[in-house]
Amino acid sequence: GNMLLQYFTNFHEGIGVFSKKVFDKYGPEGMRDILIGTGPFEMKEWTQFKGSYVTAVENHWRKTPYVAQVNTIEVPEGLVRRSMLEAGQAHIGSVPISEWPKLFAAGLQKAPEGFPGSASVCYSGNYWEKTHAKTGEALARTLENKPWIGNPADAASMEKAKKVRRALTLAIDREAINKKVFGGFGKPVYAIAIDDTNPLYQKRWETVYDPVKAKQLLTEAGYPNGFKVDPYYNNPAGTVDMAEAIGVTWKNDLNIDVTYDRQTYATFRPSIVNRTFSGMFDGGCGGPGAFPPTWPYGLNSSSLTFPGGYSNGLEIPKFTETFLKMNGEPDEAKLVKAITELNDYNLEWRLYAPIVALPNYAIYNPKKIVEWKMVPEAKGLHGGVNQPEYIKLAP
Predict the structure, then answer these.
(1) Total-model pTM
(2) Which ranges of the chain would DSSP assign to H, the alpha helix?
(3) Residue 185 phi, psi (nearest 5)
(4) Is there a contact between 119 and 360 (Cβ–Cβ < 8 Å)?
(5) If 0-12 CB within 10 Å is exposed, 13-18 middle and 19+ buried, where does residue 210 land?
(6) Which residues contact 154 (CB under 8 A, 6 or more apart)?
(7) CA 379 to chain centre
(8) In Å, how far from its chain's centre is CA 87?
(9) Which of 101, 127, 209, 312 could form a disulfide with 283 if both were Cys (CB 3.0 to 4.6 A apart)?
(10) How far apart are CA 390 and CA 108, in angstroms?
(11) Closest to 232 (Cα-Cα) out of 312, 300, 319, 304
């Protein structure tokens, strides 16, 4: 399963088809800005912070699009997206889940395909692997002096940082977040890849909101007056609202001052790829997703994807070990044992804080779009839009 995802779908930015002539002429670096592929649309413009603009390829070998042009516009504010959908200025959009009821009442609908995802907090900057898991080469990492980051060479540091992460996790009110931020569309979650309806779920993984215990742990760790954090949250589907809700609770319960990093993902991404990020963010870590819990987990919190690959801002030996155990393993009992042990490890060390499982769908206007065939979704790239060539507009 992981091999198919990694190399033959867009889920992990896998293999694409490119022009051999362009490669031979310009090389791997020179061809980066020469967008020639095999799809049913031709790229006319792709400008950062503005959007992408494509036109249909007539008599395409697979499918000539029903629409002549698709404009994808970057609109950072979720409420502005909602307004554009309501006003008919946009046909499809990604909006905060809390806005769905208003849009449904106005006659808009969910896209034909979506997937279950989750919102979480990754306590990034914990780069604990000393050598590359694949090559054995030494890894040059900087462990920032931040309360949630532990130094494996210092047992006291590790224990102190663990208490901080446990305190932060205990000061997250999942029930309130699901109700107030996500309108009850989601559900609280506590484990990596497993929700409480799954037979593999263990009650011991549940983390009940406990601000008193959280304050006690933070005081024991040496932060009775709190500290400052600047987490990165810029997801239009509502995790910005979730992060703000968590920030209010952390301030009230633990006196933690939160200032949010709202830079665009394109600007932020290099820091997690290069392993220089040491903050917190919703990196797709934890929580149940679109895949079974017996599929390999741990890759994005491992040195295995370095250099050049996505990361949760973590490199943890246990996560590397778990992924290598699960990848290619046919024995379901061994797979169950591996994911169970990983959740027990995370319960102890609190590197991920799964918070809420969420439905992920683009929202569209059926008065503008009368037909739209989609292949199954699993990641929500491009705002949850796939196969735009099958979009039929109203006459």
Answers:
(1) 0.84
(2) 2-8, 20-30, 78-87, 100-105, 155-170, 174-180, 211-220, 239-254, 265-273, 317-326, 332-349
(3) -75, -25
(4) no
(5) middle
(6) none
(7) 9
(8) 29
(9) 312
(10) 19
(11) 312
Looking up tokens 């609109």 gives: 75
Which residue reads 């699993």 in tokens? 378
d(CA 313, CA 166) in angstroms, rounded, equals 18
The residue behind tokens 């830079």 is: 263
Q: Residue 187 and residue 355: Cα distance in Å, rounded?
A: 8
For 53-101, the pLDDT digits (tens) are 999 999 999 999 999 999 999 888 888 999 999 999 999 998 888 889 9
Contact 114, 360 (CB under 8 A): yes
Closest C-alpha among 289, 291, 268, 296 to residue 280 = 268
Which tokens in the block code for residue 267?
Answer: 């600007």
Q: How many Cβ atoms sit within 10 Å of the Cβ of residue 252?
A: 11
